[in-house]
UniProtKB/TrEMBL annotation:
Domain of life: Bacteria
GO MF annotations, alphabetized: acyltransferase activity, transferring groups other than amino-acyl groups
UniProt-listed SUPFAM superfamilies: Acyl-CoA N-acyltransferases (Nat)
PANTHER family, sorted: AMINOALKYLPHOSPHONATE N-ACETYLTRANSFERASE-RELATED (PTHR43877:SF2), AMINOALKYLPHOSPHONATE N-ACETYLTRANSFERASE-RELATED-RELATED (PTHR43877)
Record field: transmembrane: none
Name of the protein: N-acetyltransferase domain-containing protein
Residue ranges constituting the N-acetyltransferase domain according to the UniProt record: 3-159
Any Pfam family: Acetyltransf_1
Gene3D superfamilies xref list: 3.40.630.30
Keyword entries, A-Z: Acyltransferase, Transferase
Organism field: Lysobacter daejeonensis GH1-9
Lineage: Bacteria, Pseudomonadati, Pseudomonadota, Gammaproteobacteria, Lysobacterales
Amino acid sequence: MTLRIREAHAADVELLAQWAQAMAWETEHKKLDPQTIHAGVAAGVADPAKARYFIAMHEATVAGHETIAEPVGTLMLTREWSDWRNGDWWWIQSVYVPESHRRQGVFAALYRHVEQLARDTDGVVGLRLYVERDNAVAHRTYEALGMKDAGYDLLEAEF
């Protein structure tokens, strides 16, 4: 599979919102409000200070000359300032690969792309993500890419 990673743009908002809904249902059995998630994705795509979305595109040559590209996965990056390190953690969020494209290196390609961007960007101290405790497949995937348990639990107060 030939993959190219690109940043998302406004034309991708509908697809990214659909994938976010699918991911929320699949991983947490949460049904997201379609208007809210659409507005949230649109705000993130429009403002890189909020988020940056990346899309993996599967490229194939058809009839020997025409190249077609199909979106096959995504992830979103956000930033968290660390006073301890005087730099930014980049958080990987909203990871989604449709089932028909899983176990084909799509997430690994997305991860390697943002990892290289992070290493090439002054002031970035590392990558983080959160994962459901019981999602053993995801844990193995992230660990295979060099990530490890940071020793924290995630707490929240949702409003």
